[in-house]
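Q: Convert this sequence to structure tokens.
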Amino acid sequence: MRLQPCGPVLDADAAARAHERLTDVATEAGWSSDLEAAWPALAPVFAASPYLFGLARRWPEQLRLLLVEGPDVRLADVLSRTDALTGGADDVRVPLRRLKGELHLLTALADLGGLWDLDQVTGALSRFADASARAALSAVAHDQRERGKLTSAPDDPRGPIPGLFGLAMGKHGADELNYSSDIDISLFWSPEVLEPVLDGVEPQRFVDRIAHAFSGLMQERTGDGYVFRVDLRLRPDPSSTPPVVAVPFALTYYEGVGQNWERAAFIKARDMLGDEAEGQAFLKALVPFIWRRSLDYPAILDIQSIKRQIHVHKTGEGLEAAGANLKLGRGGIREIEFFAQTQQLILGGRDPVLRAPRTIDALAALRDAGHVTSDVCTELTAAYVELRGLEHRVQMLDDEQTHSLPADPTRRSAVGALAGEGDLSAFDDRVETLLVNVNRRYGELFEGEEQLSSPYGSLVFTGVENDPETLKTLAHMGFSEPGTVADTIRSWHHGRIPATRSARGRELFTRLAPRLLTAMADTGTADDAFRRFAVFFAGLSAGVQVQALFLAQPRLFDLVVGVMAFAPRLARTLGRYPAALDSMLDARFERSIDEDSGIVDIMASEAAAAGDFEGAMNAVRRTHRDQKFRIGIQTLTGRAGPEAAGRAWTALADAVMAALAPAAMAETERQGGALPGGAVAVVALGKAGSREMTASSDLDLMTLYDAPAEMVSDAKGWVPGVFFSRFTQRLIAALSAHTAEGGLYEVDMRLRPGAAKGPVSLRLSSLEEYYATEGDTWEFMALTRARVVWASDPAFAGQVEAKLEAILRRPRPGADIRGDARRMRDLMARERPGHGAWDLKLSPGGQVDAEFVAQAGQLLTAADGGLLTVSTLDALSNQPELAEAWRLQQALNQVMAAAFDDKVDPTVEPERFRQLLAEAGGQSDFPALEAHLQSIRTSARQAFETELPPVRDGD
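A:
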């Protein structure tokens, strides 16, 4: 049979130049008549492919032999000479490369000339891959014997290195290699067989050196080319295992955490290299892993996910010939392979007939067993043959391991010419129709099942390398480092974190991953959301319940992803303490935070039951963390307004102090003994006193006590001042110390009288005396927000409250309250100026302006029976501009404090967060909020200037 023309001559000049050069050689060697007879078939090939012409020009004798003897004879000769190679790596390096060149020339011409079909082409490539790999391993083993490291005989029936074997994987394993394919080989070693034949070398280091030498001999590029690129990554968990894996570890891995895509990969696995008996035994041991006789529904869904991760578009959508990836793109070879393999994994455990490694054979077996129709089998088989042929022709242009049709029209025309089409438009139409039809058939498989792709595109995390379409999808989603995200997702699929260590955990994650990534993309800040979620997810001690919960409750899942995107404070809570998620399952989580959730009683009882001081601190912290998370979520989602949030944060702080103050007292009494007749009260000031706390508020406190002067503590004789100072110190520690369960609050005692040099705890009479003789106006202002939050004796609490009111109402003749307040505010503005427009506290027209007016106003009227209230808004009831400004900025502060630990500039935060702020401020969008904030602050500052006018020098 003679070579037939594959298509038109694309470049007549290139063909003429090729003809001229080959004719000179052929004439001199006496075979010009053979060249002329074959030239109609050779011209379109050498005109389109510089690589193939280069092979013919370099080795014209091989071209002559092919034309005279035919490809079958030449293939047999190439394989025979490869098998006959002996010696070390240096001896076989050049011959292997030249044999590969011969093989490439004869395979391409037999394919393009119509002498071989697809099976013959891929079979020839695969057989040579086997032969060259065996020759390379024998050469490397020879070198190790020469060095005295390997003691087995060269003709040992167990192979060049007893106990070492390689499995041909992927297309190589199924005898389906493409023209410029690399070869996937998984290398393993059996310790009990290999160790006895080694001399003075550690086995793992030895086999790793063998793998390195073997790969280098095969893939190193020299002046004679290369043999095959070698990929060793289809082994257990390649990112964390050596290149050659010990059999016991491999079996444990596949039985414990092997994934369904790895089962699919082993459908094509073939014992090919090294110790044949050990390789066959290994594959036999893996049969239960690959071919499961019984599968539960979740396992079936997980297998189907191999297919469902690929996004199936509407007919023709986005499918173009230019740049189309014929292997991994939509409508490509992979879709046909997945079509067969997913069904093989589900059905092949009970029906061995379906275990065919070759894709075309698998489709036929599925047809014969009634699982696919004859039409589908015929259509996909024909498409597979055509796609593989096109893939070969793309690679024949320059011997590149590419699967994509060139985007450049000239180069794509060359592929078309090799495929028999001279019209580029017609060729593109043919390719696009082919891809559309495959994608349509692919979409029909498991039709109606849950999609595991994303509206953004395909999300495929099978295999050991990143899927190009998936990387495009991730980039489209807004991830700045798609490769890192894909690697992380794949590591989770490998069970490298507790959440996915079980088979059920991995099955659930397969379903969760696309939802997770899509939800993150929808936040507009995908990178931040992913980074924070990764910390949380890696911290889970187990993942089945949490992942099942996320899948069952999409609203909860979206809420958690939103937290990861916009609220690093809450995300950090989940990251450090994943159990905080449990609080979201409590029925009380969704209840209004204004309702009594019983938190005071819960904290008190848990602290009391803890048994000791440290136990009480930890018990309170656990409950506090859950409640803080709950309030933060309700604040961010708008379920709680600013006043309600302020009350909730303060109620939580009150509950903490009510639980820990008795524990601090018990600890003080344990160390120093009880103090008969003594009583103490804890007084909150600042935002804690006014019930206007946010998530970031600290606690401004002071403690007041009373006791008979002559009394001392039972055990150590502490006088009252010492006793209650020790109590205060333990309370501060209980509230501010970081334990294994985290921290609670920063505590600030500087608002108490004489804070710079006075005692930590004050006798009530000393407080009264201080304010009667020494108190400055700013200290009286601070006292307007004083509130008793706990007392050891309810009656004493009443005394303290009465005393605080009496101090505020006592006339202060000659006091310039307005002037003092304005001077204090001006000093603050000089020493602590506001930092930009989003400093809601200190900027002109900010909250401090309103609070100064509220507090000074109460002092002006208190002596005459005017209103005394800890509430800023109540105190501003006659100041609408200031009240409105304070309320707006408190609403924004609540949201920002719930989301962030530090001060932030919202203008650089994601759009979704800016919209969240706008909604909290009652505006339609962020620009409207900025304009409204500026306007309302201007009015507030004018009102401030009216109520507290500037003080002239000398006043």
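Strands lie at 164-169, 183-189, 230-231, 244-246, 270-274, 679-685, 699-706, 747-748, 761-763, 787-791.
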